[in-house]
Specification:
single chain, about 100 residues, alpha/beta, Oxidized Rhodanese, domain 1, five-stranded parallel β-sheet, globular
């Protein structure tokens, strides 16, 4: 499985690269901390909402620490999304390394 660091993710976003940040955390977690430009689909809903994700665009998958997003990345890779990558460290790493205004919970 391919991974991207939060530093690489921030660099791509700041450069205006065209990709989707898919946040697979639960709604209560999104209330605690979120990144405004992310697309939120809870992990359990991804299989039934997969058609919302374009196959021709890179997808960076994020959760709290990287475990759930790793599973979703694997699922996407196995279902026709070769451009899906896991965000190593999840939103916790984003808060610690990129944007401290995002609460660390």
């Amino acid at each position: 499985m391919n991974e991207i660091s939060v530093a690489e993710l921030a660099k791509k976003h700041n450069a205006g690269e065209d990709f989707i940040l898919l946040d697979v955390r639960e709604p209560d977690e999104l209330e605690a901390a979120s990144i405004g430009w992310a697309k939120a689909i809870p992990m359990g809903d991804v299989p039934v909402r997969i058609d919302e994700l374009p196959k021709d665009k890179p997808i960076a998958v994020m959760c709290h620490g990287g475990t759930r997003s790793g599973k979703v990345t694997k699922f996407l890779n196995e279902n026709g999304y070769p451009n899906a990558v896991n965000v190593a460290g999840g939103i916790r790493a984003w808060s610690n390394e990129i944007d401290s205004s995002v609460p660390n919970y």
